[in-house]
Write the structure tokens for this entry.
Amino acid sequence: MGRSLFTLLFDIAAPVGGYYLLRAFDVAPVWALTFSGLPPALRVLYLAVRRRRVDGIGVFVLLVVAFGLVTSLLTGDARLQLVRGAWFSVLFGIWMLVSLRVGHRPTTYKATLALLPGRADDLEARWADTPSFRRVWRVLTVVWGIGGLVHSGISIAMAYTLPVDVVPGLDTALSIASFVALQVITQVLLAREGTMNRMWARR
């Protein structure tokens, strides 16, 4: 719970709140967007020092922030800053869909293995002997992949059609709503397939 609140504070609350706080002090939108994007990068750096390593997502966060800084310096275009998060959704969606053809397991399933290391043997056994279990994870990977691409499309459309000061709040709300919707779909499909429920019941 503590880690979740820490992530929520630095990755969602601080960027949005920071942007509107800076705008209240008449900081230009492009620089308010740049500086408000620093908290997630600071979190990544803190964890890197603590764990002495940076994972792939952490590297991507740092690259997004660096891209935003370079964009601010070279173009001064606030709308280019607004779509920086959409690149994550694009790459996320493509990564999900590609994993259906590349590698032995779809990304959603591999993420679950990483989150539940104590249940990895049971999950792998069910993957080997239950076709419906394999099928539901492939379906979920398609759902999350398409969801990421749709989210990025809406984010880009908002960034280039709405007033700049409206977009950060709306985009954050869209991200939260998209994540919740995808989680609900995930839980419904897993419950209908039933394998996970049977595993928890045995536990």
In short: The radius of gyration is 19 Å. The chain has two domains: 1-82, 85-203. DSSP finds eleven helices and no strands in the chain.
